[in-house]
Amino acid sequence: MKRGAVDFLEKPFDERRVCEAVERALGHSVQTQRQSAAQLEARRRLDRLTPRENQVCGYVIAGLLNKQSADRIGIAESTVKVHRSRMMKKLGVTSVVELIRLVDTARGPWSVNRSGDADDSGNSGSGMENGPLPRAT
Questions:
Q1: 122 φ/ψ sector (left φ>0, alpha ψ -120 to 50, else beta)
Q2: Which of 8, 37, 103, 130 is exposed most, by the fewest CB atoms within 10 A?
Q3: What's 25's domain CATH number?
Q4: Rounded Cα–Cα distance for residues 87 and 128 (Å)
Q5: Beta-carbon neighbour count of residue 66 at 10 Å?
Q6: For the residues 24-42, what does the mean pLDDT come to?
Q7: Whole-prediction pTM
Q8: Interior CA angle at 49 toward 45 and 53, to 5°?
């Protein structure tokens, strides 16, 4: 179906089927608006991060230890800990699981890899397959 169509009704149709289709479409619309609002809020929260905090965030969601992140960035481990602490505070999350959920929400329901294909490979690699963390538009 194209252009946001939710259902298809064949003629002749009765009033009950039309009402059911309208109710489904309205329910779908409400759900889509909630998801869009949640995605925008997650992106706004991520926009508050400095470039370094954004970089550290990517390494955290990729599962790297502070020491590994420090080696990759070329800074002291204690500095990574400071950036990580500030990032978590700014984002209002208290665990890595919450952080991953926030980033996942910001990326939206259909994350795509660089080729444009849906990324259902399950390959978590560096955690940065989808590019930098999403920004609000």
A1: left
A2: 8
A3: 1.10.10.10
A4: 17
A5: 18
A6: 85
A7: 0.65
A8: 135
Tally of CA atoms within 13 A in the half-sphere of 86 that contains its CB:
15
CA separation (Å) from 128 to 2, 75, 134?
A: 32, 20, 11
CB 113 within 8 A of CB 122: no
Indicate whether 91 belongs to any domain. Answer: yes
At 58, the pLDDT band (50, 70, 90 cuts) reads very high
Q: Which of 7, 12, 50, 53 is nearest to 27 (CA)?
A: 7
pLDDT for 67 equals 97
Residue count of the chain: 137
DSSP reduced 3-state for 14: coil
> What is the extent of the structural domain holding 70?
15-107
Rounded Cα–Cα distance for residues 105 and 131 (Å): 15
Confirm whether 46 is domain-assigned: yes
